[in-house]
Amino acid sequence: MKDERGDTRRERNARFGIETPELEVPDEGGHLWEWFSELSNRRRTGPEALAFAELGEWQRLTGQDVLPVEIEMLLSMDDAYLRAVREDQAAVRARVLEQQETGRG
What we know:
Layout: H1 9-15, H2 30-40, H3 52-62, H4 68-104
Helix pairs in contact: 2-4
């Protein structure tokens, strides 16, 4: 996913010399990854959970034939994504706090 500057996490990590594990998507799940990326890129504000209404409307408008198990997978992917985003946000807050504390001393 690209940030407000148009950089992906992989690109940011490379810029700071941080290794990013390769993403391995089985052929059978490629369409789910594409769907998730498409849906996730449509988030209106920040890291909010994908809503059933949004999934249903996306399915209706695109004509995608999505199975219930695929909806479950998309929601699980979204849960994992949101956990990672929150972890990143917490790490950034911790770094800012640490910099503020060491800057005062």
